[in-house]
Design goal:
Oligomer: single chain
Largest sheet: 6 strands, mixed
Distance between the termini: 5 Å
CATH architecture: 2-Layer Sandwich
Shape: elongated
CATH superfamily: 6-pyruvoyl tetrahydropterin synthase/QueD
Structural class: alpha/beta
CATH topology: Tetrahydropterin Synthase, Chain A
Amino acid sequence: MSFKYISTKTYPDLGPVCYRQWRADSHCNLLHGYALSFHFEFGTNELDARNWVVDFGSLKPLKEKLEEWFDHTMLVAEDDPELNTFYSLEKRGLCKVRVVEKTGCEGLADFLYDYVNDQFLPLYGYGDRVWCTKVEVREHSKNSAMRVREV
């Protein structure tokens, strides 16, 4: 389903965040970090009373969640064999661990897409009128991944 109206919100260079792809057969299996950027697209066929798709001011709690999850944190995949090592570092005050299903742009885009559609939009009054149609997570100017709405 395509939408008549689309609006976008971008949060550039949020972070830094640290993670690793423990399953990678390359240097990506080592801890490394980025100042991630996030791009969201919201679609609707019906504008609100102000003729908006979303009130950009109402997205402030989304930015706060992004900062909680991705600003000066260490993302660890829930199946990382060194998970307890990272928890130990956190207990020693050396990092803030955030456990995710999958590290990397694809996994984070998937996580955020589900969060925005299943929790955030309903909680902030958008109900069935607005849908997040795309989430893009960018490591830097050369690498990004997206989760898009299936039609």
